[in-house]
């Protein structure tokens, strides 16, 4: 459902961050992008929602070239979770989660119901957390809100760029299990970036290994472990 064909990215300063990569992600698949810092993982993610337009090649979603999408429409149809969480500090939790549904024109009642449903889905009691502000939550709780926000408008694709790297090891392990469970439950397509091989092996249906802007290998954890 998400297809890259010979996709490259050259930044304005002439640096080529991604070099002719091709891959195909199935609907409902959990793909992990792994590689050292600077290997082009974030750039690959940003090209999917046109935060960074690709320079050449073709990216398509369900057979439709992303060049034919309006960038802000595309961003509303793709959930994005980043390491720095990026909640708006002056908005309550419910307002943070409701941003995209509101932009899509949902009414207040629909938004409220969706916010409550999502808070429950990520293990936060709406009665307690809906009206709090981000700084009143722990890092792990804030990242749960970040995940709820990315899911808010029911996107088909969820992008997660090192979502747990700022968390302590225990919280990180908990959230890994929770995101795997969410993936099973929702059956959405996930693309997840990490530089941690344990995390990749634990979470990925398939793992794409990037280095110096190139895609070196793309395979299941079993194959990567047993047929190096
Ligand atoms: P990763 O996510 O694997 O750490 P990135 O995709 O962030 O890698 O970056 C890949 C390469 O592109 C790095 O060398 C980085 O310095 C460079 N890069 C990233 N963003 C820009 C930019 N806006 N302008 C120029 N070069 C950039
Ligand atoms: P527009 O271009 O229509 O004003 P944007 O797509 O720029 O809207 O989004 C505005 C803000 O809403 C962004 O800064 C981002 O934090 C948040 N946002 C937008 N789309 C999503 C999404 N799918 N998941 C999570 N947050 C989003």
From TrEMBL:
Membrane topology type: Peripheral membrane protein
Keywords (A to Z) from UniProt: ATP-binding, CBS domain, Cell inner membrane, Cell membrane, Membrane, Nucleotide-binding, Repeat, Transport
Location(s) in or outside the cell: Cell inner membrane
Gene Ontology molecular function: ATP binding
Start and end residues of each ABC transporter domain: 2-228
Domain of life: Bacteria
Reactions mediated catalytically: a quaternary ammonium(out) + ATP + H2O = a quaternary ammonium(in) + ADP + phosphate + H(+)
EC numbers on record: 7.6.2.9
Stated family: Belongs to the ABC transporter superfamily.
Subunit structure of this chain's protein: The complex is probably composed of two ATP-binding proteins, two transmembrane proteins and a solute-binding protein.
Listed name of the protein: Quaternary amine transport ATP-binding protein
Organism this protein belongs to: Sporosarcina soli
Entire protein: shown range: 1 to 228 of 378
